[in-house]
Amino acid sequence: MGIISVENTDRLYWLGRYTERVYSTIKVFADKFDSMIDMDELEYDKFCKSQDIPNIYKSKEDFCQRYCFSLKDENSIFSNLMRAYDNAIVLREEIGSESLSYIQLALYAMNQAAISSAPLIGLQKVTDNIAAFWGMADDDIDESQIRNIIRVGKLIERIDLYARLREDPRKLQREARRLTNRIDKSEIRYSLKKLAHVNYLVQLDEMPYETLIEAIERLVGDES
Amino acid sequence: MKLLFSNEVKEHRFSLKCIPHDTDMQKIENIDVSVFPDNITGKDIDSHGNITIFGYTKELHDSFGFDVEGTASTGLKDFESAKELHMVGMYKYQTKITAPGESVLDFSKKHSLESCSSNEEKALLIMQNLNNEFEYRQGCTDMDTKAEEALKGGCGVCQDFAHIMLSLCRLESIPCRYVTGMMIGEGRSHAWVEAWDDNRWIGFDPTNGKVVNDEYIKISNGRDFRDCLVNQGIFTGNVTQSQTISVIVNEEQNLIHD
Amino acid sequence: MISYMDICGKRDRVEDMEIYTGADVVNEQLARYGVKFGIYKNNEFKEQLFPFDMIPRVIDNKEFAYLEKGLKQRVKALNLFIADIYGEKKIIKDKIVPEEFIYAGSGYLPQCEGIVPSKGVYSHISGIDLVQSKDGTWYILEDNLRIPSGASYPMIVRGIERRSAPSLFTGKHIEDNRNYADMLRHTMDYVNCGGHTVILTPGRYNAAYFEHSYLAEKTGAHLVSGHELIVENDHLYFIDYSGRKERVGAVYRRISDEYLDPMSFNEESVIGIPHIFDIYRKGNVALINAPGNGVADDKGIYYFVPKMIKYYLGEEPILNNAPTYLPYYDEDMKYVLDNFDNLVLKDVAEAGGYGVVFGNKMSKEEKEKFIAMLKAEPRRFIAQEVIDFIDIDIMEKGQLLPRKADLRAFVLMAEEPMVWKSGLTRFSRNPDSFIVNSSQGGGFKDTWVLSQ
After folding, report:
1. What domain range includes position A94?
2. Average model confidence (pLDDT) across chain C
3. Does residue A178 lie in a domain region?
4. Does B64 share its domain with B149?
5. DSSP per residue over B197-252, as a string?
6. Which of A104, A183, B207, C204 could cross-link to B161 by cystine, CB 3.0-4.6 Å?
């Protein structure tokens, strides 16, 4: 049985969240990009609103470039990938060099995508590597606690994101169920009361998305 | 000793060198130590032979202190026996605090030691010269003043006298060490010097121009003041601190009964 | 002397060599696994890939057996020296080493006086730098007994090489160097005072962070930062996520002595562990390597290592120092002044390839200035004959180019010294330079030791 510090349980959790954030936002971005190619100039404004990020972009080209690839834009996909990397790089011992290498590869792919004329193809390599990371993490990491913390991070991020995107309540119910089944196995510190609250919220007829976002964000530890 | 913090601190780790140890010159008995907050975690002897107490207070506190009580029989001998010369090499070399500059070098040049044949004679003469020329005055130096700076300024306290004397002795390749201790009749801690001569450590008090005798109780020794810090600590908290040390030495005669 | 050509096959064109085709793949793989070191440029932290060249240094088994014997002898003597200096100091008493080389240097730590570490081992991991001159003679350039780094690079690269160019290794009888983690684990376990073994890192912004995390993964030791460890009641503990305290018995610390414990050393240190030195003194935790080892790997002390071998072991040194002069001695000073242009001068206080100057590369004024400094502070410098050490080819843009290369051998000490059958071969990328340090743009090669 290994020993894990508080700090590293936190990092594992955030590694789960940031990889999920990068993965999902690339997917969402790909949809928006498609509709922006030949129609709605201002589609990105709606996107920013849904993500609760400031619309600082001057045009759709500017949006596509900076939102995806600018490290100066703290909300960009690249910035989130860097956060995933920053957490992963100090977890080599917990997750192993093999799993870690996929985060490293995602980073290289992101750099390549940034200079490519077809960024979506480049970004696909990023999601490929993140998917490979999750697969490898599931397959290769002995310690179930470590796998479960990453999973919990992923699920919380997903619920958060679905709520922001006003997704179908059934999808949210499914993810909340998975989270409830998983969270105790991760031995992560969380509030039982808040978990009950989340489960209550997703069952409501009129889904209170904003309240749900608030509740899920406060379920585990402090935001860092 | 009492330390007052302007605000509360926590995660406080401390090392104390406040207990005198037995030497050939003194015997220490009935030691009673209390530290407040009371969190002593260990005790050891450092590489200079000093008794060190360790501790850790995790909780918030706004003051820290300790009391040490005990009996010392002094004057058991005129010197402390020392190891051979090759074993005391570390005391022969200057430290950052004792490193000589122009003032120390000038002083050393000005006062010839040609008449002296032994380390003991040399140290005695250095002590007398320093006692004559350096003025005792509080407030013109502080805790961090180095030997060179102090001598240049012309005045200082016992710590400065000791550091300058160490610097001068080390220029003569005499192994010598800094001593923190107490003296009868003084309400504060004192500092002096021990010089090595032929497997003996002999104490010299340049502040008073005296060879150390039964009026002195030694607490700790080292290469300079830094090795003899009575209280050393680190803690979390943004505070200013004020330290007060009070020393009471009561004399009891004729402790030796037949 | 054996060359890689004897092993890898000689062809007229580089492109036809087996080793060529694998090179790109290996470098790509190294990037994949994040084999990097960190540097600060204009105060900004950057991670750089450590340039790797596929052409190995090859050492045949007889030659390596000779090196092994010499390295064990040297490390044994160095351990005895450190024990003596912090103990009885016989070597000073017998005037083999002048005491000012001990006490006036920065490597000696008075705090370590009288401490005997767990099992009496001081230098658990020694990195001994060697070069081979063109006539085949090996010379010791430097001993690194504090925190020698670099073993992780050849260790990870070997597996990659074997995957990328398997035919290169077929039937070649090359000693497997991937056992370094086991050797290290054994070395750490041997001195462990009871409890977990951890690797203490200053953090990911340290130049060698890759190595810290990789060695942790491969040895199964926990990688920790100073604030995750705590001293309580004379023992060291790691605090896990649930608040449980786990005792730690050995710390392979990758932070320097100065920052190890703010109570005993630099009080400004925030990466250290308060009071760890005090429980180390009591024998309740092993520190790997022991604090205070700097007293033995100083460039000034280097001169005396052959004398130590004779003094402590009563043996003739098997491996030679590069011919070295100590201006501290009058006759050596005279020699240095008479032969200034043929010598390389090193400032004993500097490391990492800094403070090294070549007599023949100085202008007239520089020379005069330097000689004045030398006369004022003779103890601060050593002078060495410039060894014309062998070149090893590197591949650059499809060409073979000769470059200077040294070898860092790793000697691990448990019951007995063990020499890792490989090493870090570093080369200079600049054709005119003898300086191979990674901090100055050098690259690395694998070192193949033949088993028969």
Report:
1. 6-142
2. 91
3. no
4. no
5. ETTEEEEEETTTTEE--TTEEEEEEESSGGGG-SEEEEEES---EEEE--------
6. B207
A44 within some domain? yes
Interface A-C: count of C-beta contacts within 8 A: 57
B84 and B71 inside one domain: no
Distance from CA of C43 to the nearest CA of A (A): 18
In a domain, residue A37? The reply is yes
**Chains contacting C (3+ CB pairs below 8 angstroms):** A, B
User: What pLDDT, in 10s, does the model give residues C291-305?
Assistant: 999 999 988 999 999
Count of domains forming chain A? 1
Q: Is the dihedral of CA C347, C352, C354, C358 positive or negative?
A: positive
Residue C425 carries which side chain, given as an amino acid letter?
T
B58 to chain C: closest CA residue: C232
Nearest chain C alpha carbon to B224: C110
B227 contact C CB<8A: yes
Neighbours of chain B (3+ CB pairs under 8 A): C
Residue C72 sits at φ, ψ, to 5 deg, of: -60, -45
Closest CA to C152 of C121, C109, C181: C181
CB C242 to CB A187 under 8 A?
Answer: yes
- On whether any CB of chain C is under 8 Å from the CB of B86, the answer is yes
Answer yes or no: do C223 and A92 touch at CB < 8 A: yes
Domain spans of chain C? 4-322+388-449, 325-385
C230 interfaces chain A, CB cutoff of 8 Å? no
Q: Is the ipTM of this complex over 0.90?
A: yes
**Tokens 């031995």 label which residue?**
A187
pLDDT digits (tens, 9 = 90+) for B21-56: 999 999 999 999 999 888 888 899 999 999 999 999
pTM of the model: 0.91
Q: Could you tell me if residue B257 is inside a domain?
A: no
Number of domains, chain B? 2
**pLDDT-flagged residues of chain B (< 50):** 257-258
pLDDT of residue A40: 62
CB B96 within 8 A of CB B149: no
Closest Cβ opposite residue C275 in set B13, B48, B89? B13
Containing structural domain, residue B103: 80-228
Residue B251: inside a domain: no
Measured CA to CA, the distance from residue A74 to residue A18 in angstroms comes to 13
Q: What is the pLDDT at residue A39?
A: 67
Report the residue of C85, C96, C99, C237 to disrupt the B interface, i.e. the one with the largest count of B CBs within 10 Å.
Answer: C99
CATH architecture, range C325-385: 2-Layer Sandwich (3.30)
Quote the percentage of chain B above a pLDDT of 70: 98
Q: What is the pLDDT of residues C311-364, one digit of tens each?
A: 999 999 999 999 999 999 999 999 999 999 999 999 987 766 678 889 988 999
Cβ neighbours of B56 in C, within 8 Å: 231-232, 274-275
Residue A154 within any structural domain of the chain: no
- Judged against a pLDDT cut of 50, whether residue A139 lies above it is answered with yes
- Please report, as a single letter, which amino acid is at residue C412: L
Query: Do B71 and B98 fall into the same domain?
Result: no
